[in-house]
Specification:
The chain is an alpha+beta fold. The protein has six helices and 13 strands.
C-alpha cells in the first residue's frame, strides 16, 4: 500500500487509481482523465509518453501532463508543447479557522452550467463540462447570481484537492474566496482526508493559503500540449 507521501508526488496518477478510477483512460502505462471531465494525464516512465500523447490527442484538443520533476518525451511530428507552467503543491499543515460571514451553499447539478460559465469567465481554457463530477463544489450567491466558488478536484483515499477557486470580477477583494477555501478545507477534514492544493509559483494567493494553514511542499509542473 502506497504511503500518502508517495501519492502526493503524483496526484493525478493516484487519483485515477482510486477515487477517480471511473474516469480513467490508459495508454501503455500513461494515465489520463476522460477529456470531458479533466484534461490531465500522469506517468512514471517518460519513455512511454510520446506514443500515449499521440493517442490521447485523437480525443482531446489540448491537454496536460503533470509531473513533479520528470520531463515528458513527445513526438514533435504530431504534438506541440504550448507552455510549461511552473507550479507548486501545498498541503494543509495546521488549519487556521476564520470567521465565515457569507452564506456558503453546496452546489448541485442544476448549478453546473453556472460553475462552468464562471470558471471560463475568470480562467478560460481548462475546466471541462463534466469537471463538476470530480468532487463537491461550494458557492456564494449575490442577488440570485453565483459570484464565487470553490471546488474539489483530484482526490484519492488519502487527500482531496481544493481547486476551481474563482470569483466574478465585480465581487473580488471582499474575502469571498478566502471564506470558500476555509469552508472547503473543513469539509475535506470532515472526511478525514488531507486537504491539498496546487497553484503557480509566485502566485500572490499563496499568502492567503498560508494564512489558512497551508504550506508549500514541492514543485508540481504542468506541461500543456496540443495536436500539431
Amino acid at each position: 500500500m502506497k504511503k500518502i507521501e508517495e501519492k502526493l508526488k503524483n496526484p493525478v496518477w493516484y487519483s485515477l487509481n482510486e477515487t477517480h478510477k471511473k474516469f480513467l483512460i490508459e495508454y501503455d502505462g500513461v494515465q489520463f482523465y476522460q477529456p470531458d471531465v479533466c484534461i490531465f494525464g500522469a506517468f512514471f516512465d517518460e519513455t512511454k509518453t510520446a506514443k500515449a500523447l499521440n493517442e490521447y490527442a485523437k480525443i482531446a484538443k489540448r491537454f496536460f501532463l503533470v509531473s513533479e520533476n520528470q520531463t515528458p518525451i513527445i513526438d514533435t511530428n504530431n504534438i506541440i508543447l504550448e507552455k510549461k507552467i511552473n507550479g507548486c503543491q501545498m498541503i494543509l499543515d495546521s488549519f487556521v479557522d476564520i470567521e465565515i460571514t457569507e452564506e456558503i451553499v453546496l452546489l448541485t447539478d442544476k448549478n453546473s452550467n453556472e460553475v462552468y460559465d464562471l470558471i471560463w469567465l475568470v480562467m478560460p481554457g481548462f475546466y471541462q463540462k463534466r469537471g463538476f463530477e470530480m468532487g463537491k463544489f461550494f458557492g456564494i450567491f449575490k442577488d440570485g447570481k453565483l459570484v464565487s466558488i470553490s471546488g474539489q478536484r483530484m482526490q484519492n483515499d488519502d487527500f482531496i484537492e481544493v481547486s476551481s477557486v474563482v470569483t466574478h470580477p465585480d465581487y473580488t477583494r471582499k474575502g469571498l474566496a478566502k471564506q470558500l477555501i476555509s469552508h472547503t478545507t473543513k469539509e475535506i477534514l470532515k472526511e478525514k482526508k488531507l486537504p491539498i492544493l496546487h497553484t503557480n509559483k509566485g502566485n500572490p494567493a499563496i499568502q492567503i493559503y498560508e494564512k489558512l494553514g497551508y504550506k508549500l511542499t514541492r514543485d508540481m509542473n504542468w506541461w500543456l500540449y496540443r495536436k500539431k
